[in-house]
Structure formats: C-alpha cells, structure tokens
Design goal:
Blueprint (H helix, E strand, L loop, with lengths): L8 H36 L6 H26 L2 E2 L2 H8 L3 H4 L6 E2 L2 H21 L2 H4 L6 H12 L1 H21 L3 H5 L1
Antiparallel strand pairs: 1-2
Helix pairs in contact: 1-2, 1-3, 1-5, 2-5, 5-8
Length: 183
C-alpha cells in the first residue's frame, strides 16, 4: 500500500534542512561520546598501561575525529555547488532545467549508509578495546566479572548501531518511504 502525501516544496526544503541539522548533531554527539569513553579507558588504566594499548587508544581517537570530519563534510557538502543540494528539493524542475555539467551531487543514500557502517565499526572497536586489559587486571574474579559485564553493555550500543544501519539500508535502497515500510 502506497500513501501519497502532498507537501509544499518550501516545507519540504525546511524539512530537509532539519534533517541535515539532526544528522550533524547525531554524528557530533556520537563522536564526543566515543572520545569520552576512550579517554575514560586512558584514565582508568593510566598506572599499568602498555605502550601498545596507548597507541591503540590514540589511533582509535584519531579515527573517531577523522570519521567525524569526513561525515560532516560528506553530509553538509554533498553537492557542488552547495545551493544545488537544497534547490533539488525546493525546485522540482531544477534537475531538468540545469545541464548535468553545471552541478554534481553524491548519492545521499550511499553516503549515509557508509557513514552508519563506519560508526558501527568504531562502536565495536571502542567496545572491544578494554577487554584486552581485563585479562591482566589483578583483582578478585568476582570484581573482574562485574567489570566485564559493565563494559559488555557497549555491545547493546553496537546492536543499536547495526539496527540503524540496516534501517538506513532499507530506507535508501529498498524503499524511500520510511513511514509505509515500518508501519
């Protein structure tokens, strides 16, 4: 069943601008959360940390920052010139009235999918990283198990990221109508 809804082009453009702002806030917040978790790992293990683990932490933090910058650039500047991004939503005839050589846009669905996939990979790395240290900790077995269970909660976040990536795939590659697909 397909539902056809008529939305004025000005409201569609505003909706698209809100979607863009929402996505930038999402990428920004997840990057900061991952960085704070990685810095917490650094603080937690500062007395008995190995150089390999420090290198892994800084590499993962650098990957998070690079991922954030690339994500924001790809999402905020998907078209050249930039005005084309909003013109394609504002003016439905824009694609037909402007020659193909005067503008160029990325495939939005593919970009969002790969960004989601990259986020899931970084989630898994951030979650798995502390488990290498728990084996070396000198503490009672019970405390070690409790600590592992606490950090094991990160896999719930990884599962949510996988579900989000799957939803992005369904929306952008199977159907572009999210409301009809999931209702």
């Amino acid at each position: 069943m397909k539902i056809k809804i008529s939305i004025q082009s000005t409201k569609l453009c505003s909706l698209h601008q809100l979607q863009l702002a929402n996505y930038v806030c999402y990428v920004w917040s997840t990057c900061l959360i991952k960085l704070s978790i990685l810095l917490f790992y650094r603080r937690l293990t500062s007395k008995f940390i190995s150089p390999k683990f420090v290198y892994a932490l800084w590499t993962t933090m650098g990957a998070n920052v690079i991922f954030f910058i690339v994500s924001v650039v790809v999402v905020c500047f998907p078209c050249y010139p930039m005005s084309t991004y909003f013109q394609t939503y504002w003016n439905t005839d824009y694609v037909h009235t402007h020659p193909a050589g005067t503008w160029q846009c990325l495939d939005e669905g593919r970009a969002v999918y790969y960004i989601s996939l990259g986020g899931v990979i970084l989630d898994f790395i951030t979650t798995i990283l502390p488990f290498t240290l728990f084996l070396k900790l000198r503490m009672p077995k019970r405390q070690k198990i409790a600590m592992c269970l606490t950090f094991f909660g990160g896999f719930i976040v990884c599962g949510a990221g996988v579900a989000r990536t799957w939803t992005v795939y369904l929306v952008y590659f199977e159907t572009y109508d999210m409301t009809c697909k999931f209702i």
